[in-house]
Amino acid sequence: MSAARDEAIENNDTLTLEYVKAMYSKFISTMGESIHNREMVRPDWMHIIHSQAYANLWGKAFKASTAGLDVVAMMGTDELHVTGDWRKLFPEGRGVAQMKVKHGEGKATGEYTVGTVGAVGR
Length: 122
Hints:
Order of helices and strands: HHHEE
Number of strands: 2
Number of helices: 3
Strand order of the largest sheet: 1-2
Shape: globular
Strand content: 5-15%
Helix content: 40-55%
């Protein structure tokens, strides 16, 4: 699946990329006890995969904190909000081991200012 994802990114194939992401997400979410997937019930695998994703995120947060960036938030299994220039610390891109600015409907613009300068009016 990783090879298909990498190939879709390389070829700028949005349709295949979105399909692979949706397929992976659905597979992981139904691997435990689910009425939608009775063929493969492996809650142990599901928990192992989730645990690895959380561990990867916590590792990135630790790396950011150690490098002097403040960790503002960690969400889900793949979202890390930090202060400062994270691009000096993490490679930017859409690959599995890379970081990217998240965009999308209902999400923040990916980069934002924390706090304000000056007085706030009434």
